[in-house]
Amino acid sequence: MEINPLVVVAIMILVAYTFFYTPGGQLRNLLVLFVLFIIGVTLVLAVSEMPLFGSVESPAYNYVVQRYITGTVPETGALNAIAAIITDYRAFDTLGEATVLFTAVAAALATLGAQQGKR
Amino acid sequence: MDDLVTRSVCRLMVPFVQLYGAYLIFYGHLSPGGGFAGGAVVASSIILYALSFGRETAVLRVAPGISHLLESSGGLWYLLVGLCGIMLGGNFLANKAAGFYLGIPGQLFSSGIIFLLALGIGMKVSSTMVTLYYNLSAEVNDEDGHGI
């Protein structure tokens, strides 16, 4: 089923308008509607620039995909291509993810652990 | 929470949940899963135990100190495996170029650092979630004045 982006943006504008609507303030409501219209036009223009879902011209379908599909088993020895990408081809990125987890725990201990010590 | 039904069901479920988490970590390079998913499952089993038996009982089984130790050593293990790649003559986190044993595709002990890194990631993710849960639940415990 094809979803028209215009319809989606129109519904979003209506919902946002009911959220920002103030009874009585007519000029304010007009301003809100104007700003929402500009945002909606920008969104529609951005969506119209995007490639269609599954189209061959999509920038995501380049030589990298071919390399992953054909090279996973001989180059990494893993059958799961996703595991090969995460922990072999892009292992440095996963190290960053591990650092994010470490930072989360450090922040939680710094804020909550200090309270525990006072008790 | 003192509920016989919850305790009995959790007592039955926790070993199977942990087994499934270990399976996800160890077989991440052969089937869907991996360190992140498996670590989350293992951590959820410990959190389930803490929810049903109370935080005080769970702390006796998995101490916060052990959780902290596993958290730090998981990250260090990741870095160590990456530095092994440099020592063996490749890039940082090199797999085949550094001469790690790739094995036969489809076997458990294969695919070089993917297997080793999944262990470290699983250790780190599970201990991170457990540490966060312990800290957040301790805060609730303090304000109420009695156990969760």
Domain unit count of chain A? 2
Class derived from helix and strand content of chain B: mainly alpha
Strand content of chain B: under 5%
Largest sheet of chain B: none
What shape does the CA trace of chain A take? flat
Radius of gyration of chain B: 18 Å
Number of helices of chain B: 5
**Can you give the mean pLDDT of chain B?**
87
Largest interface: which pair? A-B, 31 and 43 residues
Oligomer: heterodimer
Number of strands of chain B: 0
Structural class of chain A: mainly alpha
- Report the C-alpha radius of gyration of chain A, rounded: 24 Å
**Helix fraction of chain B by DSSP (H/I, runs of at least 4):** over 70%
Please trace the helix and strand order of chain A, writing H or E for each element. HHHHH
What is the terminal separation of chain A in angstroms? 59 Å
The number of domains of chain B is: 1
Low-confidence stretches of chain B: none
Descriptive report:
The complex is a heterodimer of chains A (119) and B (148). The longest helix of chain A has 28 residues, at 91-118. In chain A, helix 1 packs antiparallel against helix 2, helix 3 (63-76) packs across helix 4 and helix 4 packs across helix 5 (91-118). The termini of chain A are far apart. Chain A has five helices and no strands. Chain A has helices at 5-20, 26-49, 63-76, 81-89, 91-118. Chain A is flat. With 119 residues, chain A is mostly helical. With 148 residues, chain B is mainly alpha-helical. Chain B has one domain. Chain B has helices at 4-26, 35-53, 55-61, 64-87, 113-144. In chain B, helix 2 (35-53) packs across helix 3, helix 2 (35-53) runs parallel beside helix 5 and helix 4 runs antiparallel to helix 5. The longest helix of chain B has 32 residues, at 113-144. The radius of gyration of chain B is 18 Å and the shape is elongated.
Summarize the structure.
With 119 residues, chain A is mostly helical. Chain A is 76% helix and 0% strand.
